[in-house]
Amino acid sequence: SGQESLSPSVARARHARSLSVPPQPRDCSLSSWSSWSKCDPCQKKRYRFARLEQPSQFGGDPCDGSDREAEECVTNSPCRSRARCDGFVCALTGRCIARRLLCNGDDDCGDQSDEKNCKKVFRKCDQKMEEYWGIENLAKGLNIFTNSLEGLVLDHRYYAGACSPHYITDTRFRKPYNVESYTPETKGKYEFTMTEYDSYSNYESTVLKAKATQSSFSVGIKIPKVFELGYSSNDMRFKKFMQRMKRFSSSSSKFLHARCELAVGVYKLKPRALMLHHEFLRRLRQLPVEYSYGEYRELLRDFGTHFIQEATLGGIYEYTLVMNSHELHKAGYSLSDVQKCAQKGFNIAVSFGKFSVGLGVDSAGCKALLKEVGDSTVRKQFVEDFQALVRGGASEEITTLAHKDLPTAQLMQLWGDAVQYNPEIIKLKV
């Protein structure tokens, strides 16, 4: 062939060099405009759009201008009238509500027009009640292609006059009209599931890629009934985590990944007759009668592709220890020893479960190893990096503590209490 076969070491060196060369910037480009749609009889407008042919990548220029256009037009075609309202038509939102909801002290219209010109207000709900924890996010649409929660699709501040209190511990909540049930959950303890990975490629394929694709689906793929809500592609927590971990892609490091999941509530939506958020309803009514790709695409961008039918709320606390395999080997330690040290360290203050104490490393060695995780003044021998990723219970204090050291029983209790009042969606059904 006239070509020398490369030795494995030379091939690896060339591969490493090729990885270090940054990719060329790619500018965003759009297709030419589509033809104009027919004149819509209700909006008295016609529409056209451009498709995305190449997204901006690697620092390339973004697309300038809009990818959809509308212009006024004239048509003789009649506009099909909307469904008749036998109740009260709200002034700005156009919502149709029952007349019994007028002058009851609630903003049932979403624009306060049902509470105007009242001779007397007959308050249905005098007692102070709280909103369910995390209820605002549950009303949003989900874009399953990006894992992002978008605009409000449902109105979870509409009660249809109902005022029966729902108690969770000592807190009194008011159940929204759209919600069938919101049940407190006590699943999950402060226990970590730990997994060892002897190479970056194993860690990447199991942990990093799974995070990037949880609930991210491509067109034509059937969506599972219940799935874990992964990180949004724009989530800075996830971006920083990925950037830090990718530094070890060409190393011989070993990885210990720990994960704890805590569920605090289960939410279920009513199966029918839902009250839509007034802004989403307004946008729906602005859509042309005849399908126009550009207008429907814009609606999906702003409000997502699906709404949430059921969800588990809570938090996920996970961390990764990156270990120097050469130094571990020199000291006669294995990755399993590190795992047992981490488990033992977590269980010092309080016993959340019994772990094996048959360590291949003595107590002093364990202390030295664990000290390297949080102490920036110690010269690192075994621990190359420590990265935490926390969802739910957002607080500056918890975030600071989580990124500083291995979790203690006290920190987990602090985090668990915060998750109760500030949960995130961890599993859902759309």
From TrEMBL:
Q: Kindly give the PROSITE patterns that the UniProt entry links to this protein.
A: LDLRA_1 (PS01209), LDLRA_2 (PS50068), MACPF_1 (PS00279), MACPF_2 (PS51412), TSP1 (PS50092)
Indicate how the chain sits in the lipid bilayer.
Multi-pass membrane protein
Span list, region Disordered: 1-37
Q: Which UniProt keywords apply?
A: Complement alternate pathway, Complement pathway, Cytolysis, Disulfide bond, EGF-like domain, Glycoprotein, Immunity, Innate immunity, Membrane, Membrane attack complex, Repeat, Secreted, Signal, Target cell membrane, Target membrane, Transmembrane, Transmembrane beta strand
Disulfide pattern: 103-118
Where the record annotates domain MACPF, the positions are 121-430
Question: Gene3D superfamilies recorded for this chain?
Answer: Low-density Lipoprotein Receptor, Thrombospondin type-1 (TSP1) repeat
SMART domains attached here? LDLa (SM00192), MACPF (SM00457), TSP1 (SM00209)
Q: Biological process GO terms, please?
A: complement activation, alternative pathway; complement activation, classical pathway; killing of cells of another organism
User: Which InterPro entries does the entry mention?
Assistant: LDL_receptor-like_sf (IPR036055), LDLR_class-A_CS (IPR023415), LDrepeatLR_classA_rpt (IPR002172), MAC_perforin (IPR001862), MACPF (IPR020864), MACPF_CS (IPR020863), TSP1_rpt (IPR000884), TSP1_rpt_sf (IPR036383)
**Where, subcellularly, is it found?**
Secreted; Target cell membrane
Is this entry keyworded Glycoprotein?
yes
* Residues in the signal sequence: none
Family the entry assigns: Belongs to the complement C6/C7/C8/C9 family.
Q: What role does it play? A: Component of the membrane attack complex (MAC), a multiprotein complex activated by the complement cascade, which inserts into a target cell membrane and forms a pore, leading to target cell membrane rupture and cell lysis. The MAC is initiated by proteolytic cleavage of C5 into complement C5b in response to the classical, alternative, lectin and GZMK complement pathways. The complement pathways consist in a cascade of proteins that leads to phagocytosis and breakdown of pathogens and signaling that strengthens the adaptive immune system.
PANTHER family found in the cross-reference section: COMPLEMENT COMPONENT C6, COMPLEMENT COMPONENT C8 BETA CHAIN
Subunit arrangement?
Heterotrimer of 3 chains: alpha (C8A), beta (C8B) and gamma (C8G); the alpha and gamma chains are disulfide bonded. Component of the membrane attack complex (MAC), composed of complement C5b, C6, C7, C8A, C8B, C8G and multiple copies of the pore-forming subunit C9.
The name on file for this protein is Complement component C8 beta chain
As recorded in Swiss-Prot or TrEMBL, the protein's gene is named: C8b
